[in-house]
Design goal:
It is a single chain. The chain has 416 residues and is α+β, with helices and mostly antiparallel strands. It has three domains: 32-75; 79-274, 3-Layer(aba) Sandwich (Rossmann fold), CATH 3.40.50.150; 280-408, Pathogenesis-related Protein p14a (3-Layer(aba) Sandwich). The chain is 30% helix and 23% strand. It has twelve helices and 17 strands. The protein has helices at residues 4-10, 23-29, 39-58, 61-75, 77-82, 113-120, 141-146, 161-178, 210-226, 243-246, 292-300, 362-369, and strands spanning 89-90, 108-109, 130-135, 153-158, 183-187, 199-205, 231-236, 251-257, 269-274, 305-310, 313-317, 323-328, 331-338, 374-376, 379-384, 389-395, 401-408. Strands 10-11-12-13-17-16-15-14 form an eight-stranded antiparallel sheet. Strand 10 and strand 11 form a beta hairpin. The radius of gyration is 29 Å and the shape is globular.
């Protein structure tokens, strides 16, 4: 380990290190200027210091005030519109209730609006078949925001009776003014909550530490094993409490602002996708290349390299060459994924459809998908009626999965 004194001296490079002076000479050398006997010099330095302090206080203040005012307007928009109470903070040790997991809870603070809306953009476009669950919902702001996304049902789980009661009042006010009665608040410990059946979006705004999150994630994985289905997990303000998800073979990091390990970035979020959850880029098949959904997918997967393969064919590819979106005319006709790059790593190797895995060989693929419709030198082809597309797989010389192409059926056509 390097001597820390070198780092400290770097911060003071503007001054010369004093020599070994002794007696009266040393005292005079280091006597502060504020103790100089000259009144004029004292007043001059005092005036300069006050002037500098005033300039620092005033510099940029109007902009800071305007920015804070805008943030306050965004954060209180729901409360001002519906008369609800979701703002403020609440320290758990100031709330009078008993729970063995209370010591593992985190101070209540509502999810910032921008953070919530950004995380929602990473989910499938159609959420009408999904249940939204907010673990540690507090006063329920995330529930009210989620109501704008068309979820089948919205559930808030809160173990503090006081906060749960406030959330219930907010949900009732919201339901009275909007007619939306799909919001429910449950006063329960997250470790004892049963994961709803069907497709789910499970939301966590850093509600508790890893001691509780480990149990909750174990319950989620058990529920997924008993009933395979689409599950997305959103964790905002990523901390070590999310580590069990990074280690889970059933969930993969899918989108968001995150790092693969500590130190975590402040105020970020990460979306985990269950292996059975649908991939949003499949929805681009058949759409126009300039449609909002296609443009969102191009931005999300960094398909920024555009080139014309022919006068009527456009390719939108990633800089690393891992994924291509192919458009013919005014329609997206195919999506190509290179599972393994030349150096052995593909940037999209964990973004594979139909439960395929990057490490699978030909036999494992056959066990998963069954016998192909056609198998020749061009690869193995499977007809997938659920997305009206043909799935083509190719393997490397070691019989490992190397390439996937999902090609949309021609309009009005049936599989051959």
């Amino acid at each position: 380990m390097e001597d820390s004194s070198k780092d400290r001296s770097a911060h003071f490079a503007f001054g010369r290190e004093p020599g070994p002076l002794e007696g009266k000479e040393r005292a005079m050398q280091f006597r502060p200027a504020s103790l100089d006997p000259s009144p004029t010099r004292v007043l001059r330095r005092l005036g300069a210091g006050l002037s500098h302090l005033a300039r620092r206080r005033l510099r940029g203040s109007p902009l800071r005030v305007l920015r804070r005012w805008r943030e306050w307007r965004e954060e209180t928009a729901l409360d001002r519109r519906f008369g609800t109470d979701t703002s403020g903070r609440a320290q758990l040790d100031e709330l009078s209730f008993e729970s063995e997991n209370k010591i593992f809870g985190i101070t209540y603070m509502a999810t910032p609006a921008k953070l919530f809306f950004s995380s929602m953009q990473c989910l499938p476009r159609d959420l009408s078949d999904y249940t939204f669950v907010d673990f540690g919902c507090g006063k329920g702001r995330a529930l009210l925001n989620a109501a704008e996304y068309g979820f089948k049902q919205i559930i808030g789980v809160e173990f503090s009776p006081q906060l749960a009661e406030i959330a219930k009042r907010n949900v009732e006010l919201y339901g009275t003014k909007t007619g939306n009665r799909r919001l429910v608040v449950t006063n329960a410990d997250a470790t004892l909550f049963d994961i709803p059946a069907g497709n789910c979006v499970l939301y966590f705004f850093n509600p508790f530490s890893i001691e509780v999150s480990s149990i909750v994630f174990r319950n989620i994985m058990q529920s997924l094993m008993e009933s395979p289905r689409a599950i997305f997990i959103i964790w905002c303000y990523v901390t070590d409490a999310a580590l069990p998800l990074f280690r889970s073979p059933d969930f993969i990091p899918y989108a968001g602002q995150f790092a693969p390990g500590p130190p975590w970035p402040e105020k970020g979020f990460i979306v985990f996708r269950g292996r059975n959850a649908p991939l949003d880029f499949l929805s681009a098949l058949g759409l126009r290349p300039d449609s909002p959904e296609t443009r969102r997918i191009i931005r999300k997967y960094s398909l920024t390299d555009r080139y014309a393969a022919s006068p009527s064919t456009q390719h939108y590819g990633s800089p690393a060459g891992g994924m291509n979106l192919v458009a013919e005319g005014n329609r997206v006709v195919a999506i190509q994924i290179h599972v393994r790059a030349a150096h052995g790593y593909g940037p999209y190797e964990d973004t594979l459809p139909f439960e395929l895995r990057s490490h699978m060989d030909r036999q494992e693929v056959d066990r998963l998908l069954g016998p192909p419709t056609v198998s020749d030198e061009l690869g193995c082809r499977y007809e997938r009626s659920e997305i009206r597309a043909t799935l083509t797989l190719r393997f490397d010389p070691a019989s490992r999965l190397a390439y996937i192409e999902i090609a949309a059926w021609p309009l009005g056509a049936l599989p051959t």
